Amino acid sequence: MTGTLVLVRHGQSDWNLKNLFTGWRDPDLTDLGVQEANAGGKALADYGIKFDIAFTSVLTRAQKTCNIILENVGQTGLETIKDEALNERDYGDLSGLNKDDARAKWGEEQVHIWRRSYDIPPPGGESLRDTGARVWPYYLTEILPRVLRGEKVLVAAHGNSLRSLVMVLDKLTKEQILNVNLATGVPMVYKLNADSTVASKEVLGDMSAAH
């Protein structure tokens, strides 16, 4: 019997609220972000899952989301592994800039390409493909073996690091993944087959509340 993989994007951060490119910068959650993490945790508690281990990035917003979820499922103090392989995509020279200011500087079309193309990175930063190039090996060596042993694994990370995983799990093309946005604080519950393919996927929570 294989295990369960739960992916959760962190709740809203201060810089999400301020419309800033964040990347590897380290702002905290907003009050709304804390509420979103709590909602995700309550959804998982209602689902009845107990985790064997958690993984998160080295960034505060993901770690805090992870901790809030574990509080809600009654597993404060669960072993949690932090690794920068799960960090958000590095936005390079865009990091810290207001998205509207970036559009004024480089043009709407260019900024859209950097944000939404699969393999064109912003100056000094990472594309989604670059992000996947560090997320996928980490997933294959550190996370997937545990799931295949039957463990229940929580991964609390970021929009783009998780999108690169979802792309592989859901067998999406590089064109299809561009239209995928992950809601903040909404758990995605994957059950895997013995060959590591997806047996089922369930999204917990109201997707209409996504933003």
Automatic annotation (TrEMBL):
Q: In which pathway does it act?
A: Carbohydrate degradation; glycolysis; pyruvate from D-glyceraldehyde 3-phosphate: step 3/5
The protein's Enzyme Commission number: 5.4.2.11
* Highest taxon in the source lineage: Bacteria
Which InterPro entries does the record cross-reference, listed alphabetically? His_Pase_superF_clade-1, His_PPase_superfam, PG/BPGM_mutase_AS, Phosphogly_mut1
On whether Isomerase is a keyword of this UniProt record, the answer is yes
- Stored PROSITE patterns: PG_MUTASE
A GO molecular function assigned to this protein is: phosphoglycerate mutase activity
User: What positions does the entry give for substrate binding?
Assistant: 9-16, 22-23, 61, 88-91, 99, 115-116, 159-160
Mind listing the UniProt keywords for this protein, alphabetically? Answer: Gluconeogenesis, Glycolysis, Isomerase
Q: Where is the active site?
A: 10 (tele-phosphohistidine intermediate), 88 (proton donor/acceptor)
- Pfam families with a match to the protein in the record: His_Phos_1
Q: Does the keyword Isomerase apply?
A: yes
The protein's annotated catalytic reaction(s) are: (2R)-2-phosphoglycerate = (2R)-3-phosphoglycerate
Which residue positions hold the site described Transition state stabilizer? 158
SUPFAM superfamilies reported for this sequence: Phosphoglycerate mutase-like
Top-level EC class, please?
isomerase
Identify its protein family: Belongs to the phosphoglycerate mutase family. BPG-dependent PGAM subfamily.
Q: How does it assemble?
A: Homodimer.
The record ties this protein, via PANTHER family, to:
PHOSPHOGLYCERATE MUTASE (PTHR11931)
Its function? Catalyzes the interconversion of 2-phosphoglycerate and 3-phosphoglycerate.
State the protein's name.
2,3-bisphosphoglycerate-dependent phosphoglycerate mutase
- Please tell me the species this chain comes from: Peteryoungia aggregata LMG 23059
List the top taxonomic levels of the source: Bacteria, Pseudomonadati, Pseudomonadota, Alphaproteobacteria, Hyphomicrobiales
